[in-house]
């Protein structure tokens, strides 16, 4: 085998090996992220052109070192294929008290449609399934651009947001300067 052919084969194999070692998520914005047991989960968001909301779900294990140019992202989007997955960007996301799942609430979408249960859903990181929590009391209106904070006991505090075309509201822009406390799947 000639030296140029050998070098071409080595280069090809190195390129294939590099591409197979890592998954790089597509460029998006307005996603939310949460840390659960040394794994970062990133959900939802939108792509820029054309403005399209996505149901992407990625994870990154941070318990092991990785090369910053090739982090070991895992695409979990395939597990998000059922109808309970909210199609949202600019939403809130927080971990459950048991450390096995996370909640998503609110957000808007490129279709301008209201979300089922105002976008309130739960993803179990162990079973890799989405569900809709069944005991919803005093559910506030869906809104996007919200902020959330949570305690280690699983209480989430949700602040503000807006309702507009992207949350399925009429074209009238509406702000929500209210503060909600979410505990045991009950808004107060």
From TrEMBL:
PANTHER family: KELCH REPEAT PROTEIN (AFU_ORTHOLOGUE AFUA_5G12780). Residues 1-22 form the signal peptide. Keywords: Iron, Repeat, Signal. One of its GO terms (biological process) is glucosinolate metabolic process. Transmembrane segments: none annotated. This is Galactose oxidase. The keyword Oxidoreductase does not apply. The keyword Transmembrane does not apply. InterPro entries: Kelch-typ_b-propeller. It comes from the Eukaryota. It holds the Pfam family Kelch_KLHDC2_KLHL20_DRC7. It comes from Jimgerdemannia flammicorona. SUPFAM superfamilies: Kelch motif. Gene3D superfamilies: Kelch-type beta propeller.
């Amino acid at each position: 085998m000639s030296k140029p052919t050998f070098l071409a084969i080595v280069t090809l194999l190195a390129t294939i090996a590099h591409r197979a070692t890592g998954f790089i998520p597509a460029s998006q914005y307005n996603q939310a992220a949460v840390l659960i047991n040394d794994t970062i989960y990133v959900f939802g968001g939108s792509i820029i052109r054309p403005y399209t909301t996505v149901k992407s779900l990625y994870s990154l294990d941070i318990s092991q070192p990785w090369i910053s140019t090739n982090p070991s992202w895992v695409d979990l989007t395939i597990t998000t294929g059922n109808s309970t997955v909210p199609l949202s960007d600019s939403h809130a996301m927080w971990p459950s008290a048991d450390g096995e799942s996370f909640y998503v609430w609110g957000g808007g979408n490129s279709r301008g449609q209201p979300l089922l249960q105002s976008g309130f859903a739960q993803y179990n990181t162990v079973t890799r399934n989405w569900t809709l929590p069944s005991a919803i009391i005093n559910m506030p209106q869906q809104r996007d651009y919200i902020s959330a904070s949570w305690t280690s006991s699983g209480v989430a505090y949700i602040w503000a947001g807006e309702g507009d075309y992207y949350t399925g509201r009429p074209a009238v822009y509406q702000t929500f300067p209210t503060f909600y406390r979410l505990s045991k799947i009950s808004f107060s």
